[in-house]
Amino acid sequence: MRLAIFDCDGTLVDSQHAIVAAMTAGFAAEGLAAPDPALVRRVVGLPLVGAVAMLLPEADPALHERVAEAYKAAFFQNRTSGRYLEPLYPGVREALDALEDAGVLLGIATGKSRRGLVAILEHHGLLDRFVTLQTSDLVAGKPNPDMVIHALSEAGVEREAAVVIGDTTFDVLMARNARVRCVGVTWGYHEGAELVAAGANCLVDSYAEVPSAVLGLMPSVATQ
Q: What is the pTM of this model?
């Protein structure tokens, strides 16, 4: 058995506008000036409270928690109203098809909440494509390896037969900490050079390259 573990935000879906809007609302709820959108994109993928803490390093933990709660409320309201789209990146479906056709199981490890992840996957009709969903509200978040370890256990796959696909150094470090190979994607929120420096095994510039890159890092299927 082989497993491809995808990040969500910045890898499967382009959610930057929704995330920046919700973070801006979270800050406003506490009377804070809007954060720099570029800095918000830098923390995408971390557990929410940890992301807020990186944006407000001098603030006390209680404020981090309040901003995070306001963020969640704003994100939910924006999603249910259809105010901000979270489109799939071009070629996602075709890449998933190619991996499944090659006998690879699919999973997700994301900083999103379970509710948020299920909502976006249902919206795009992808929920039933993934055999394991790991979220940072249920398991320790990136770069901790726990989401990968839990994904491997749920899928019944050895670490040597798994590959993480992600757009941030948090994804790469999570994979390295779990001793799993990693494909870095260049269309997300961290630069390709950063992903390589963090330890990505290779980079891809489009979803057309994902299946071959992932399969190239996995053991071949034994022939009878």
A: 0.92
Residue 14: active-site member: no
Domain at 2-14+87-216, CATH homologous superfamily:
HAD superfamily/HAD-like (3.40.50.1000)
* Per-residue DSSP letter, 13: B
Q: Please confirm, yes or no, whether 146 is among the known catalytic residues.
A: no
Q: Output the CA–CA distances (angstroms, integers) from residue 81 to 18, 37, 61, 76, 84, in the order listed.
A: 12, 22, 30, 9, 8
| Cα of 123 vs its chain's centroid, Å | 17
**C-alpha 33: how far from chain center:** 27
Where exactly are the structural domains of the chain? 2-14+87-216, 16-81
Are 192 and 77 within 8 A, CB to CB? no
φ, ψ of residue 109 to 5 degrees: the values are -130, 115
Q: Give residue-wise pLDDT tens across range 50-109.
A: 999 999 999 999 999 999 999 999 999 988 888 888 899 999 999 999 999 999 999 999
Domain covering 16-81: architecture: Orthogonal Bundle (1.10)
Catalytic residue among 7, 14, 167, 171: 7
Chain mean position to CA 45: 5
Query: Which residue out of 9, 14, 146, 171 is catalytically annotated?
Result: 9
